[in-house]
Amino acid sequence: MLEMRSLSLSVTVRGRTVRAVTDVSLAIQPGRVLGLVGESGCGKSLTAQALLRLGEYQGVRREGGDVLLDGSSLFSMDQQTLRQVRGGRIAMIFQEPMTALNPVFSVGTQIMDVIRLHLKLNKAQAKQRALRLLADVGLHDGESLLAAYPDALSGGMRQRVLIAMAMAADPDYILADEPTTALDVSVQTRIVALLRKLQQRRNLGMLLVTHDFGLVAEMCDDVCVMYAGEIVEQAPVRDIFDDPRHPYTRALMQCRPESVARGRPLAVIPGQVPPPGRWHRGCRFFDRCALADGACETHPALDCWQRGDHRARCVHAGKEPA
Ligand SMILES: Nc1ncnc2c1ncn2[C@@H]1O[C@H](COP(=O)(O)OP(=O)(O)O)[C@@H](O)[C@H]1O
Ligand SMILES: [Mg+2]
Protein backbone atom coordinates (compact mmCIF):
# COMPACT_ATOMS: atom_id res chain seq x y z
CA MET A 1 0.00 0.00 0.00
CA LEU A 2 1.11 3.56 -0.74
CA GLU A 3 0.08 5.81 2.07
CA MET A 4 0.32 9.49 2.91
CA ARG A 5 0.03 10.30 6.60
CA SER A 6 -0.76 13.81 7.83
CA LEU A 7 1.53 15.36 5.27
CA SER A 8 2.09 19.10 5.35
CA LEU A 9 4.12 21.03 2.77
CA SER A 10 5.28 24.60 2.51
CA VAL A 11 6.31 26.70 -0.48
CA THR A 12 8.07 30.03 -0.73
CA VAL A 13 6.09 32.84 -2.32
CA ARG A 14 7.89 36.19 -2.76
CA GLY A 15 10.40 35.32 -0.08
CA ARG A 16 7.77 34.20 2.43
CA THR A 17 7.46 30.53 3.43
CA VAL A 18 3.81 29.52 3.67
CA ARG A 19 1.86 26.31 4.08
CA ALA A 20 0.51 25.02 0.80
CA VAL A 21 -0.74 21.57 1.85
CA THR A 22 -1.80 20.64 5.38
CA ASP A 23 -2.43 17.39 7.15
CA VAL A 24 -3.26 15.28 4.07
CA SER A 25 -3.80 11.58 4.70
CA LEU A 26 -4.74 9.16 1.96
CA ALA A 27 -4.09 5.57 0.91
CA ILE A 28 -3.66 4.05 -2.53
CA GLN A 29 -4.33 0.33 -2.63
CA PRO A 30 -3.42 -2.23 -5.30
CA GLY A 31 -6.22 -2.61 -7.80
CA ARG A 32 -8.02 0.54 -6.67
CA VAL A 33 -8.25 4.04 -8.08
CA LEU A 34 -8.32 7.04 -5.78
CA GLY A 35 -9.51 10.31 -7.31
CA LEU A 36 -8.11 13.63 -6.09
CA VAL A 37 -10.39 16.44 -7.20
CA GLY A 38 -10.68 20.18 -6.72
CA GLU A 39 -10.27 23.43 -8.63
CA SER A 40 -6.95 24.60 -9.96
CA GLY A 41 -4.65 25.82 -7.17
CA CYS A 42 -6.02 23.53 -4.43
CA GLY A 43 -2.75 21.64 -3.96
CA LYS A 44 -3.51 18.48 -5.95
CA SER A 45 -0.24 18.42 -7.88
CA LEU A 46 1.84 19.23 -4.80
CA THR A 47 0.18 16.31 -3.04
CA ALA A 48 0.68 13.90 -5.96
CA GLN A 49 4.32 14.93 -6.36
CA ALA A 50 4.97 14.46 -2.65
CA LEU A 51 4.10 10.78 -3.08
CA LEU A 52 7.38 10.57 -5.00
CA ARG A 53 9.22 13.33 -3.15
CA LEU A 54 9.39 15.30 -6.38
CA GLY A 55 8.46 18.70 -4.95
CA GLU A 56 11.74 19.16 -3.14
CA TYR A 57 13.37 20.05 -6.46
CA GLN A 58 11.07 23.07 -6.74
CA GLY A 59 11.53 24.47 -3.29
CA VAL A 60 8.66 22.56 -1.71
CA ARG A 61 9.41 21.60 1.90
CA ARG A 62 7.92 18.88 4.02
CA GLU A 63 6.75 20.38 7.30
CA GLY A 64 5.39 17.21 8.81
CA GLY A 65 3.90 13.82 8.13
CA ASP A 66 5.17 10.98 5.99
CA VAL A 67 4.76 8.88 2.86
CA LEU A 68 4.94 5.13 3.36
CA LEU A 69 5.42 2.52 0.66
CA ASP A 70 4.57 -0.88 2.14
CA GLY A 71 5.37 0.62 5.52
CA SER A 72 8.76 2.17 4.61
CA SER A 73 9.12 5.93 4.74
CA LEU A 74 10.07 7.54 1.43
CA PHE A 75 11.62 10.34 3.44
CA SER A 76 14.13 8.10 5.16
CA MET A 77 15.15 6.25 1.99
CA ASP A 78 18.63 6.80 0.55
CA GLN A 79 18.85 8.34 -2.92
CA GLN A 80 19.57 5.05 -4.64
CA THR A 81 16.55 3.28 -3.20
CA LEU A 82 14.45 6.30 -4.04
CA ARG A 83 15.60 6.19 -7.67
CA GLN A 84 14.45 2.57 -7.86
CA VAL A 85 11.11 3.41 -6.31
CA ARG A 86 10.58 6.24 -8.81
CA GLY A 87 9.49 4.57 -11.99
CA GLY A 88 10.19 1.11 -10.61
CA ARG A 89 7.45 0.84 -7.97
CA ILE A 90 5.63 4.14 -8.45
CA ALA A 91 5.37 5.85 -11.83
CA MET A 92 3.98 9.25 -12.68
CA ILE A 93 2.04 10.43 -15.72
CA PHE A 94 2.02 14.19 -16.05
CA GLN A 95 -0.56 16.53 -17.47
CA GLU A 96 1.45 17.94 -20.34
CA PRO A 97 2.58 15.29 -22.79
CA MET A 98 4.20 18.10 -24.80
CA THR A 99 6.67 19.03 -22.10
CA ALA A 100 7.16 15.71 -20.33
CA LEU A 101 9.05 14.24 -23.30
CA ASN A 102 12.49 15.52 -24.18
CA PRO A 103 12.40 16.96 -27.72
CA VAL A 104 16.10 16.26 -28.26
CA PHE A 105 15.92 12.48 -28.00
CA SER A 106 14.03 9.94 -30.07
CA VAL A 107 11.08 8.11 -28.54
CA GLY A 108 13.13 4.89 -28.61
CA THR A 109 16.03 6.40 -26.69
CA GLN A 110 13.68 7.74 -24.03
CA ILE A 111 11.71 4.54 -23.54
CA MET A 112 14.78 2.33 -23.56
CA ASP A 113 16.54 4.59 -21.04
CA VAL A 114 13.70 4.03 -18.60
CA ILE A 115 13.65 0.30 -19.24
CA ARG A 116 17.39 -0.09 -18.77
CA LEU A 117 17.43 2.08 -15.67
CA HIS A 118 15.13 -0.35 -13.91
CA LEU A 119 15.52 -3.74 -15.58
CA LYS A 120 18.67 -5.69 -16.29
CA LEU A 121 18.20 -6.06 -20.03
CA ASN A 122 20.59 -5.76 -22.94
CA LYS A 123 19.87 -3.42 -25.83
CA ALA A 124 18.06 -5.96 -27.97
CA GLN A 125 15.89 -7.12 -25.07
CA ALA A 126 15.13 -3.54 -24.10
CA LYS A 127 14.03 -2.85 -27.67
CA GLN A 128 11.74 -5.87 -27.66
CA ARG A 129 10.22 -4.68 -24.42
CA ALA A 130 9.79 -1.16 -25.80
CA LEU A 131 7.94 -2.52 -28.84
CA ARG A 132 5.65 -4.58 -26.62
CA LEU A 133 4.95 -1.63 -24.35
CA LEU A 134 4.07 0.53 -27.34
CA ALA A 135 1.72 -2.16 -28.63
CA ASP A 136 0.13 -2.37 -25.17
CA VAL A 137 -0.74 1.32 -25.35
CA GLY A 138 -2.19 0.95 -28.84
CA LEU A 139 0.83 2.13 -30.86
CA HIS A 140 1.43 -0.60 -33.38
CA ASP A 141 3.87 0.96 -35.80
CA GLY A 142 6.56 0.49 -33.15
CA GLU A 143 9.68 0.36 -35.29
CA SER A 144 9.13 3.74 -36.92
CA LEU A 145 7.89 5.24 -33.64
CA LEU A 146 11.11 4.32 -31.85
CA ALA A 147 13.03 6.33 -34.42
CA ALA A 148 10.63 9.30 -34.26
CA TYR A 149 11.11 12.48 -32.27
CA PRO A 150 8.35 13.80 -29.97
CA ASP A 151 7.70 16.76 -32.32
CA ALA A 152 6.44 14.39 -34.97
CA LEU A 153 3.71 12.92 -32.75
CA SER A 154 0.19 14.11 -32.00
CA GLY A 155 -0.79 14.96 -28.41
CA GLY A 156 -2.64 11.69 -28.03
CA MET A 157 0.33 9.67 -29.30
CA ARG A 158 2.70 11.49 -26.95
CA GLN A 159 0.46 10.72 -24.01
CA ARG A 160 0.41 7.06 -25.06
CA VAL A 161 4.20 7.07 -25.23
CA LEU A 162 4.33 8.55 -21.71
CA ILE A 163 1.95 5.88 -20.47
CA ALA A 164 4.15 3.23 -22.07
CA MET A 165 7.17 4.77 -20.31
CA ALA A 166 5.29 4.76 -17.00
CA MET A 167 4.58 1.04 -17.48
CA ALA A 168 8.17 0.28 -18.54
CA ALA A 169 9.36 -1.22 -15.25
CA ASP A 170 6.04 -2.78 -14.27
CA PRO A 171 5.26 -0.43 -11.39
CA ASP A 172 2.70 -1.22 -8.71
CA TYR A 173 1.38 2.32 -8.46
CA ILE A 174 0.60 5.01 -11.01
CA LEU A 175 0.16 8.66 -10.19
CA ALA A 176 -1.69 10.35 -13.03
CA ASP A 177 -1.87 14.14 -12.76
CA GLU A 178 -4.65 15.35 -15.07
CA PRO A 179 -3.50 12.89 -17.72
CA THR A 180 -6.08 13.93 -20.30
CA THR A 181 -6.60 17.63 -19.63
CA ALA A 182 -4.32 18.82 -22.42
CA LEU A 183 -5.91 16.57 -25.04
CA ASP A 184 -8.86 16.91 -27.44
CA VAL A 185 -12.10 15.50 -26.07
CA SER A 186 -12.23 12.59 -28.54
CA VAL A 187 -8.65 11.64 -27.69
CA GLN A 188 -9.37 11.97 -23.96
CA THR A 189 -11.98 9.21 -24.10
CA ARG A 190 -9.56 6.80 -25.71
CA ILE A 191 -6.72 7.61 -23.29
CA VAL A 192 -9.08 7.09 -20.34
CA ALA A 193 -10.16 3.72 -21.72
CA LEU A 194 -6.50 2.77 -22.10
CA LEU A 195 -5.60 3.81 -18.55
CA ARG A 196 -8.55 1.90 -17.21
CA LYS A 197 -7.62 -1.24 -19.13
CA LEU A 198 -3.99 -1.13 -17.96
CA GLN A 199 -4.98 -0.40 -14.37
CA GLN A 200 -7.34 -3.36 -14.25
CA ARG A 201 -5.16 -5.78 -16.16
CA ARG A 202 -2.11 -5.04 -14.03
CA ASN A 203 -3.99 -4.56 -10.77
CA LEU A 204 -2.36 -1.16 -10.35
CA GLY A 205 -3.04 1.14 -7.46
CA MET A 206 -3.73 4.52 -9.00
CA LEU A 207 -4.02 8.12 -7.93
CA LEU A 208 -5.99 10.08 -10.50
CA VAL A 209 -5.76 13.85 -10.16
CA THR A 210 -8.56 15.52 -12.07
CA HIS A 211 -11.20 18.21 -12.01
CA ASP A 212 -13.41 16.18 -14.34
CA PHE A 213 -16.24 14.42 -12.50
CA GLY A 214 -17.05 12.38 -15.59
CA LEU A 215 -13.61 10.86 -15.29
CA VAL A 216 -14.10 10.31 -11.56
CA ALA A 217 -17.36 8.43 -12.20
CA GLU A 218 -15.73 6.29 -14.84
CA MET A 219 -12.46 5.47 -13.14
CA CYS A 220 -12.46 5.94 -9.38
CA ASP A 221 -13.34 3.76 -6.43
CA ASP A 222 -12.75 6.41 -3.80
CA VAL A 223 -12.51 10.18 -3.89
CA CYS A 224 -10.73 12.90 -1.94
CA VAL A 225 -11.94 16.44 -2.54
CA MET A 226 -9.26 19.07 -1.92
CA TYR A 227 -9.75 22.72 -1.16
CA ALA A 228 -7.08 25.25 -0.20
CA GLY A 229 -4.41 22.70 0.64
CA GLU A 230 -6.49 20.21 2.60
CA ILE A 231 -8.91 17.36 2.09
CA VAL A 232 -12.43 18.61 2.76
CA GLU A 233 -14.35 15.47 1.90
CA GLN A 234 -13.37 11.85 1.52
CA ALA A 235 -15.69 9.01 0.50
CA PRO A 236 -16.35 6.02 -1.73
CA VAL A 237 -17.23 7.34 -5.19
CA ARG A 238 -20.96 6.55 -4.89
CA ASP A 239 -21.34 8.72 -1.81
CA ILE A 240 -19.60 11.64 -3.50
CA PHE A 241 -22.17 11.57 -6.30
CA ASP A 242 -25.27 10.53 -4.34
CA ASP A 243 -24.74 12.30 -1.05
CA PRO A 244 -22.06 15.01 -1.21
CA ARG A 245 -21.80 16.64 2.23
CA HIS A 246 -19.31 19.49 2.00
CA PRO A 247 -20.71 22.71 0.44
CA TYR A 248 -17.59 22.83 -1.76
CA THR A 249 -18.22 19.32 -3.10
CA ARG A 250 -21.86 20.20 -3.69
CA ALA A 251 -20.82 23.32 -5.57
CA LEU A 252 -18.37 21.35 -7.71
CA MET A 253 -21.08 18.84 -8.54
CA GLN A 254 -23.42 21.62 -9.66
CA CYS A 255 -20.75 22.87 -12.04
CA ARG A 256 -20.77 19.60 -13.96
CA PRO A 257 -22.14 19.95 -17.48
CA GLU A 258 -24.32 16.86 -16.88
CA SER A 259 -26.09 18.45 -13.94
CA VAL A 260 -27.16 21.52 -15.90
CA ALA A 261 -30.14 21.54 -18.24
CA ARG A 262 -29.22 21.85 -21.91
CA GLY A 263 -28.96 25.39 -23.15
CA ARG A 264 -28.54 26.80 -19.64
CA PRO A 265 -25.21 28.35 -18.66
CA LEU A 266 -22.87 26.29 -16.51
CA ALA A 267 -22.91 27.16 -12.82
CA VAL A 268 -19.65 28.57 -11.46
CA ILE A 269 -18.53 28.87 -7.87
CA PRO A 270 -18.19 32.59 -7.20
CA GLY A 271 -14.78 33.78 -6.05
CA GLN A 272 -11.47 31.97 -6.21
CA VAL A 273 -9.44 29.40 -4.34
CA PRO A 274 -7.33 31.41 -1.88
CA PRO A 275 -3.61 30.86 -2.54
CA PRO A 276 -1.22 29.55 0.15
CA GLY A 277 -0.80 32.14 2.89
CA ARG A 278 -4.24 33.65 2.25
CA TRP A 279 -6.48 31.03 3.82
CA HIS A 280 -9.25 31.91 6.25
CA ARG A 281 -8.17 30.85 9.74
CA GLY A 282 -11.46 29.00 10.25
CA CYS A 283 -13.05 27.07 7.42
CA ARG A 284 -10.99 27.80 4.33
CA PHE A 285 -14.14 27.81 2.17
CA PHE A 286 -15.66 30.52 4.42
CA ASP A 287 -15.63 33.39 1.92
CA ARG A 288 -17.34 31.39 -0.82
CA CYS A 289 -19.84 29.44 1.23
CA ALA A 290 -23.54 30.24 1.52
CA LEU A 291 -23.75 28.39 4.85
CA ALA A 292 -20.83 30.20 6.54
CA ASP A 293 -21.62 31.58 9.99
CA GLY A 294 -19.96 32.08 13.36
CA ALA A 295 -19.53 28.34 13.85
CA CYS A 296 -17.19 28.32 10.83
CA GLU A 297 -14.69 30.71 12.45
CA THR A 298 -12.95 27.70 13.99
CA HIS A 299 -11.02 25.43 11.64
CA PRO A 300 -13.09 22.23 11.30
CA ALA A 301 -11.62 18.72 11.46
CA LEU A 302 -12.12 16.25 8.59
CA ASP A 303 -14.17 13.96 10.80
CA CYS A 304 -16.43 16.85 11.77
CA TRP A 305 -19.13 14.88 9.95
CA GLN A 306 -18.68 11.14 9.50
CA ARG A 307 -20.70 8.17 8.38
CA GLY A 308 -18.74 4.96 7.80
CA ASP A 309 -15.77 5.89 5.61
CA HIS A 310 -17.42 9.08 4.41
CA ARG A 311 -16.01 12.22 6.08
CA ALA A 312 -16.61 15.93 5.59
CA ARG A 313 -14.77 18.91 7.04
CA CYS A 314 -17.83 21.08 7.63
CA VAL A 315 -19.81 21.87 10.77
CA HIS A 316 -22.95 22.17 8.62
CA ALA A 317 -22.43 18.91 6.72
CA GLY A 318 -25.37 17.30 8.49
CA LYS A 319 -27.81 19.84 7.02
CA GLU A 320 -29.76 18.87 3.94
CA PRO A 321 -29.01 21.05 0.90
CA ALA A 322 -31.50 23.84 0.21
N1 LIG B 1 7.08 25.19 -6.23
C1 LIG B 1 6.18 26.07 -5.83
N2 LIG B 1 6.54 27.27 -5.29
C2 LIG B 1 5.62 28.17 -4.87
N3 LIG B 1 4.29 27.97 -4.93
C3 LIG B 1 3.85 26.81 -5.46
C4 LIG B 1 4.76 25.81 -5.94
N4 LIG B 1 4.04 24.77 -6.42
C5 LIG B 1 2.74 25.12 -6.24
N5 LIG B 1 2.62 26.32 -5.67
C6 LIG B 1 1.35 26.99 -5.29
O1 LIG B 1 0.64 26.11 -4.44
C7 LIG B 1 -0.76 26.11 -4.77
C8 LIG B 1 -1.18 24.70 -5.12
O2 LIG B 1 -0.55 24.31 -6.32
P1 LIG B 1 -0.85 22.94 -7.08
O3 LIG B 1 -0.57 21.80 -6.19
O4 LIG B 1 -0.13 22.98 -8.37
O5 LIG B 1 -2.44 23.05 -7.34
P2 LIG B 1 -3.37 22.16 -8.30
O6 LIG B 1 -2.58 21.04 -8.83
O7 LIG B 1 -4.50 21.73 -7.41
O8 LIG B 1 -3.86 23.09 -9.35
C9 LIG B 1 -0.93 27.10 -5.89
O9 LIG B 1 -1.34 28.33 -5.33
C10 LIG B 1 0.45 27.22 -6.50
O10 LIG B 1 0.66 28.49 -7.06
MG1 LIG C 1 -2.14 20.55 -10.84
Could you characterize what this model shows?
- The chain is α/β, with parallel strands linked by helices and 322 residues long.
- The protein has 2 domains: 2-220, 3-Layer(aba) Sandwich (Rossmann fold), CATH 3.40.50; 244-322, no CATH class.
- Helices cover 32% and strands 23% of the residues.
- The protein has helices at 44-50, 79-88, 97-100, 107-118, 123-136, 142-147, 155-167, 185-201, 213-219, 237-242, 247-254; strands at 2-13, 16-28, 33-37, 61-69, 72-73, 90-93, 173-177, 205-210, 222-227, 230-236, 305-307, 310-312.
- The strands form 2 sheets. The protein has an 8-stranded mixed sheet, with helices on both faces. It has a 4-stranded antiparallel sheet with strand order 2-1-4-5, with helices on one face.
- The radius of gyration is 21 Å and the shape is globular.
- Bound molecules: adenosine-5'-diphosphate and magnesium ion.
- Magnesium ion binds at residues 44-45, 177.
List the helices and strands and how they pair.
Blueprint: E1 2-13, E2 16-28, E3 33-37, H1 44-50, E4 61-69, E5 72-73, H2 79-88, E6 90-93, H3 97-100, H4 107-118, H5 123-136, H6 142-147, H7 155-167, E7 173-177, H8 185-201, E8 205-210, H9 213-219, E9 222-227, E10 230-236, H10 237-242, H11 247-254, E11 305-307, E12 310-312
Parallel strand pairs: 3-8, 3-9, 6-7, 7-8
Antiparallel strand pairs: 1-2, 1-4, 4-5, 9-10, 10-12, 11-12
Helix pairs in contact: 4-5, 5-7, 7-8
Bound molecules: adenosine-5'-diphosphate and magnesium ion.
